[in-house]
């Protein structure tokens, strides 16, 4: 995958192998990886349990939004562990020096992955939460703007970093995280999310970086 600074789509949703299920999630892996790796992920029986454990709440936080609630997955330690393990199996041995987690759901999965692969954890926080000197990246949401901040000195130039969040919708948040880390000189290896919303998969703005998603929600739009 090239690293050109454009807004090309980089997620290959399910590679056509996603399996629709009753609760509206497809078991899917959307990697920009070797075919063999993709096959392993798609055939992995743990994906079914992960998908089943995510609750979809209609019209939250506002009408029309099908909210993908991961708190139900967190109540099931075996499934929670399966999700972390799948990420760890993918990233172990890849020379990842840092895992950067996006507030808030990236703080749930990121530290466990970081510890398991022997990397440091860097919180990317919403504005005015970090006490030290920060660098900031403002990004555009569907309505309005938001901002991510990181402590200066958290990452060293050329360190290999994995970005983790719970969910990718438009990709705007991940794109801001990539920009922030690259401005600090980091080498962004990949972005990893538990859930991808397929509604947006053709318009991701990820600066040419791959995104790896365990399950795809099919119930976003009603
Ligand atoms: O791909 P995007 O369109 O940028 O959207 C994805 C972002 O939206 C959600 O965060 P949210 O702002 O809801 O904050 P939270 O995780 O703190 O609830 C999600 O956790 C991602 O960070
Ligand atoms: N549909 C959704 N469910 C959970 N979190 C989200 N963040 C953005 N869209 C979301």
Automatic annotation (TrEMBL):
One Gene Ontology biological process: adenine salvage
InterPro entries xrefs: Ade_phspho_trans (IPR005764), Adenine_PRTase (IPR050120), PRTase-like (IPR029057), PRTase_dom (IPR000836)
A GO term, aspect molecular function: adenine phosphoribosyltransferase activity
Enzyme class: transferase
Chief location of this protein within or outside the cell: cytoplasm
UniProt protein name: adenine phosphoribosyltransferase
Stretches assigned to the Phosphoribosyltransferase domain: 92-196
Primary gene name: LOC123137462
Catalytic activity: AMP + diphosphate = 5-phospho-alpha-D-ribose 1-diphosphate + adenine
């Amino acid at each position: 995958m090239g690293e050109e600074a454009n807004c090309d789509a980089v997620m290959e949703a399910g590679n056509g192998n996603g399996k629709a299920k009753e609760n509206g999630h497809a078991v899917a892996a959307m990697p920009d990886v070797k075919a063999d790796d993709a096959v392993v992920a798609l055939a992995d029986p743990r994906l079914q349990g992960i998908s089943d454990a995510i609750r979809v709440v209609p019209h939250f936080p506002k009408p029309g939004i099908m909210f993908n609630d991961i708190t139900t997955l967190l109540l099931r330690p075996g499934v929670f562990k399966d999700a972390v393990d799948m990420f760890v199996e993918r990233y172990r041995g890849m020379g990842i020096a840092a895992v950067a987690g996006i507030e808030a759901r990236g703080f749930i999965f990121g530290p466990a992955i970081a510890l398991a692969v022997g990397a440091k954890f860097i919180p990317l926080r919403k504005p005015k939460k970090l006490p030290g000197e920060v660098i900031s990246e403002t990004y555009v949401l569907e309505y309005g703007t938001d901002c991510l901040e990181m402590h200066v000195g958290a990452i060293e130039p050329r360190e290999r970093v994995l970005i983790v969040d719970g969910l990718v919708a438009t990709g705007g948040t991940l794109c801001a995280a990539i920009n922030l880390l690259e401005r600090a000189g980091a080498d962004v290896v990949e972005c990893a999310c538990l859930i991808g919303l397929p509604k947006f998969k053709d318009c991701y703005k990820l600066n040419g970086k791959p995104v790896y998603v365990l399950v795809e929600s099919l119930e976003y739009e009603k």
